[in-house]
């Protein structure tokens, strides 16, 4: 079976010094690079927001980062401005072997909707196109690594499992934000959807 490695959001803004730094987010880069040679396909994702993206606290009067607002698709966590299209924060972390990627997929580029998952935006219905790419390449199993365990890795893994892919998350090659117990909740949700974590 064709097995793909999906490297989620290893970008400057999710690494120490970045706008939404995940503790030790940069630590995983060398081991992810080493892992790339073990797969039939390597796909990188890139969080890619317009400067006025609705997930940014700066776009909501009187709101601070890490609060939530209701959106038509449900509650949305507000984030510091991050991964602005074309900016340094949105660039892949230095040292990530981007040359090994077969596909780079960008998400979160629609102003009014966030996209944690590499498959669907946060309404859980608007597709990114990744499913079609994987199916047309005959990919059946996915291994996921990257940032952040409890947000983009979690949502990507759950969506992939629901779509019928076999999914393994390598927790040693992920790092978490862990906002109000979000890591624990993510691990439970992934287990409940049949995602294998190692
Ligand atoms: C992410 C929060 C906002 C992630 C992206 O990559 O996990 N988290 N945007
Ligand atoms: Zn984002």
Tell me what you see in this structure.
The chain is an alpha/beta fold. 20% of the residues lie in helices and 24% in strands. The protein has 4 helices and 8 strands. The strands form 2 sheets. A 6-stranded parallel β-sheet has the order 5-2-1-6-7-8. A hairpin with a 2-residue loop joins strand 3 and strand 4. Helix 3 packs parallel to helix 4. The protein is globular, with a radius of gyration of 16 Å. The chain starts with a strand and ends with a strand. The model has no long low-confidence stretch (mean pLDDT 97). It binds pyrazine-2-carboxylic acid and zinc ion (ZN).
What is this entry, summarized?
This protein is an alpha/beta fold and 198 residues long. It contains 4 helices and 8 strands; from the N terminus they run βαββββαβαβαβ.
């Amino acid at each position: 079976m064709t097995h793909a490695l999906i490297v989620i959001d290893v970008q400057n803004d999710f690494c120490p010094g970045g706008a939404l730094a995940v503790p030790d987010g940069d630590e995983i880069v060398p081991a992810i690079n080493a892992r790339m040679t073990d797969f039939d396909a390597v796909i990188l994702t890139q969080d890619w927001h317009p400067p006025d993206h609705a997930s940014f606290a700066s776009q909501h009067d009187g709101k601070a980062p890490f609060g939530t607002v209701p959106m038509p698709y449900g509650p949305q966590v507000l984030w510091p401005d991050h991964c602005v299209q074309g900016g340094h924060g949105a660039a892949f972390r230095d040292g990530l072997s981007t040359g090994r990627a077969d596909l780079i997929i960008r998400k979160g580029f629609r102003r009014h909707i966030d996209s944690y998952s590499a498959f669907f935006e946060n309404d859980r219905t608007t597709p990114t196109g990744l499913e079609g790419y994987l199916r047309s390449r005959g990919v059946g199993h996915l291994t996921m690594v990257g940032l952040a365990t409890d947000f983009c890795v979690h949502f990507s893994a759950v969506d992939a499992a629901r779509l019928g892919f076999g999914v393994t998350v390598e927790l040693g090659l992920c790092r978490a934000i862990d906002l109000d117990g979000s890591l624990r909740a993510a691990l439970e949700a992934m287990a409940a959807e049949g995602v294998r974590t190692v």
